[in-house]
Amino acid sequence: MIAQIREQLYELFKSSEVHSIALSDPQPTNFIEYTWLWILESYGEFGLFLIFYLSMAFLYALGGLFFYFCDKFHWFQSRKIQIKKYPTSDDIKRCINNLVTNYILIVLPLGIISFPFSRILGMQHSLPLPPVWRFLFDMLLCLIGEDFFHYWMHRFFHTPWFYKNIHKEHHYYTAPFGFTASYAHPVEVVFLGLATFAPAFILRPHFITFYSWFILRQLDAVLTHSGYDIELFPFNLLPTYGGTAFHDYHHKEFTCNYGSRFTWLDKLLGTYKEKKSPTKSN
């Protein structure tokens, strides 16, 4: 196993070299496949990974900034869950410092290490890309699977020792804001990251689905930590989706609502509590 991992890591960095696709390989049939193939030919598999990583970080920052502006300029205040509770400049600085550290020292290495396991499991970069229905179906299964694994991992982190020494850091903010989605102790980032990897490793989808899933997971986390229950976002169309109010209440009460986004497992196991709807403005 160690030899396989070492070989796949070597292949990852070797693949950063520009290479061409043989004529016998499947040819692109649409804009997305042409773009995917162009990136592979121009930058290799490692270059594609870096583009994904930077895109994930950029979209996380963009989502966090959007909700920062909601707080600063009082947008969507009728959807604000914890009324008149806004992060201070010190709160934001503390959060950003933690995020930068985690993204560079934890998230990036985890992404690189995951590559050999993905290749060993048979995941591919090559064409053809999955059809839309398969892409959406795999994404839905990842959402459901991650929610299941996250529930148990999260509940484990609420046992006395792990909460006191690890998970308490994430609960520093009882009124979370968008940037706090990945604010956590490094150990928690690793273990809850495993909950995100798990459904993808079980499904073994195409890499475009694998990468898209991680971006979606981060955006969903920003939304559920935003402090705003905005029903326009498409996640609310999913059955049993608890949304921001569901997770915001966990940050306020601590011992309930352990799922990432769905309420079904908390309701089934008696750990669900409902947050009152935000006060509507006149």
From TrEMBL:
It holds the Pfam family FA_hydroxylase. GO terms for molecular function: iron ion binding; oxidoreductase activity. This is Sterol desaturase family protein. PANTHER family: STEROL DESATURASE. It is found in: Membrane. Its main location: membrane. The chain crosses the membrane at residues 46-70, 103-121. GO terms for biological process: lipid biosynthetic process. It comes from Heterostelium pallidum (strain ATCC 26659 / Pp 5 / PN500) (Cellular slime mold). The lineage of its organism: Eukaryota, Amoebozoa, Evosea, Eumycetozoa, Dictyostelia. Residues 139-271 form the Fatty acid hydroxylase domain. GO terms for cellular component: membrane. It comes from the Eukaryota. InterPro entries: Fatty_acid_hydroxylase, Sterol_Desaturase_Related. Keywords: Membrane, Transmembrane, Transmembrane helix.
